[in-house]
Amino acid sequence: MDAPIFPACFPQHTNVTAVEIDCDRVFVVEDASATTAQICADADTPFAWQAGSFDAVGVVDGENVLRLTCRTNDDVGAHYLVNLFVPSRSLRRITFVSSGTLVVYPRTLVDSMAASISITNTDAGTIFIQDQALHMHDLALEATGTGSIQWDVASTVVMDAIGLRTTSAGNVTLLSRQVLTAATLSATTTTSGNIAATSANLTVASHVATSLSGSGTITYTGHGACGNHSITQMGPGNAYTSAMQCANTSVLATSTGDVYVASSHALDVTQLGAGTVFLVSSKEKGQAPLQVSGTVSTVVDELTTTTPPLLVAIPPHVLQGSPHHATSSRHRHRNPPVEYTIQGSITSLLIDCDRTFVRAQDNDMTTTKIIATPDAKAPANVESMLLHSVEVVDGDTLLTVWCQHTPYVENLYVVDIVVPAQSIQYVAFRGRQHLVLYPHTLHTSSPRSTNVSLAITNEDRGNIFIQDSAVDAVHSLALRANGAGSIQWNVPRTVVADTIELRAGDAGSVILFATSQLSTEALTASTHGHGVVFVQSTNLTVATSMHTDIAGTGGIAYTTHGTCGDHIINQMGRGHVYASAITCAKTSVLAASSGDVFVATANALDVNQMGSGTVFVQQSTPPPHVSGAFQMDNRLTMPNLALAQLPPHDDVVDDSLEHGADPLDIDVAWRQHAMVGLALAMLGLFLVCRHGWRRWNQQRPRWHQLLPNAPTSPTNDLYDPRTGTINYVETPLVHAMNPRNATTIPRDTTYGSSVMTS
């Protein structure tokens, strides 16, 4: 039986606009019908109210300030849960002086361009602010103790200034997923605390000031722009600011910390310390600034991407701390699903939920539905844990779905998005586990498909699974893994009218399975960092040109039989190119690093050998027209990769809930089995690709011995969905080819001007 709860309420006779809180567990809640504030608190002992002070109201700087104080001592031993009910949009200033948690729910802070909001944390606790949209004149978030502030408002619009400051070990996180705008922005760290600001659209019209004088870091992530940016780096902490491209940027670097910047017009660097200033460039950011002064190192985006700040889970709205309230898990009820309906046609999806399944309507409905199913461990206020928005971007209707992250969010929610059949053209995924696109969700076959471009992008470490029977005659297809996650395209018949683009950066993987047919006018595959691209089809046809580019340790493999026109290979990293299964009319290779290149070509081969790697021509006779250094090999060398199973579509519930297990045992089992087994299973595809390619790179074939009967390695299933285990392939597959009259050409000579030896 649950222990009794002793409630008490303390009404206020005046409205308050500011609060100073010294209680360990406080929730600020909107009371839409109220005109004054009211405090209602729960405690686990009737003697609690001898130790509390809840009704001290004073006037400070013209504002009515309510001071909340909860005290415990050995004689009372009380534990509190304090609900502060306030009128809608009434609070301007909050000061937290406790080591516990303060949760500020939506529609409690002011929403007016004439008002300013100030949030201060002076102790070791954590402040959570949640809302969908807020407008204000100024915004100040300051952590002066070891505690943190987490601002999680989808749209934050500030007329004048945003000030982010930490003066101790506390962190300040400003997350506005949709919009974050201000006239000026200042971010200051003085010791070990960190500051992070992230938004898909971060715009500062005038000036950004970034100042570091301790070991803490300042990070801007997402996409942004500003007028002028001044960076003062006077400590060992790093400044990651390249997500915000400003017109003019000045950097004063006097310590060991590094600075990452992006600037469109001018960059002025004064380097007085041991750190490095990196100018980050990319196709998206355009050309380097017109004016650069000082010492600068230039890098590309994929090599300097920093991990976005992780959100801390909002504490549950229950009384905690007393051993009397350790309620058994079997008594907790599952929360009902939450459903949203969006009218009209949706063509694009931006998903930031960890377990998401997209399926097509069973009828001709034109609406889109979002169904979030939480399990027993999920917080009760599901509505505040899942947000969505609809907007028109470049003529396409974009649906954004965002889920509040928790330490074990992988097993708390299942999100279903039900869309009209064959309606989706663009998908971006920012989750940490998996996204499944079921058949008939993508716009794949209709009279106007030839005008449709499909693009699937993975921005984080989760996995995307695309499953369908056919994609017929779309104009273009792009699969991009920009983070550490993977994309698995499993569509037996894939026909693209113009271009297929496969891109893997960081440690991401792009795997394309087309067991029946894969055809396109042109195909481009590129990797950066540890990225991997893998293409497998029984019949691949590229009418005109293929481009294969490697710029890191990852590899690209075409384990298929097919043909192409021209194949251009740029090998500028340690990764290998396995392309000998495809016979192209003409092949050009730029080999500028230590990776090997395996090719087959019918008419002409042009090799520009500038590195230590080897170009292997894996066919029985050389092509008629050759130039450059290469070696002949009559075997087909390629890695092997098995198709990963789709994640199961079920509501993940701890089995121990049905068997009356002790809550402590449940928590241990959750950590050990759910986090290890399920996480490994869902991330198995990515791990296989990354570690498998590393294993192959370590065993880079420097010479291929010609064996009378070359063995064929067994095909291993890399991922076992029943156990979540991974079986690594030890060596590349080697297939015998006939006839066996292979010829070896020395690396330092050009075929046609040297004597061949058998």
Automatic annotation (TrEMBL):
Question: What is this protein identified as?
Answer: Aste57867_8194 protein
Domain Putative auto-transporter adhesin head GIN residue range list: 168-279, 509-617
Q: Which organism is it from?
A: Aphanomyces stellatus
- Please name one Pfam family that this protein belongs to: DUF2807
Question: Sorted alphabetically, which InterPro entries does this protein's record hold?
Answer: DUF2807
Query: Would you indicate the residue range of the signal peptide?
Result: none
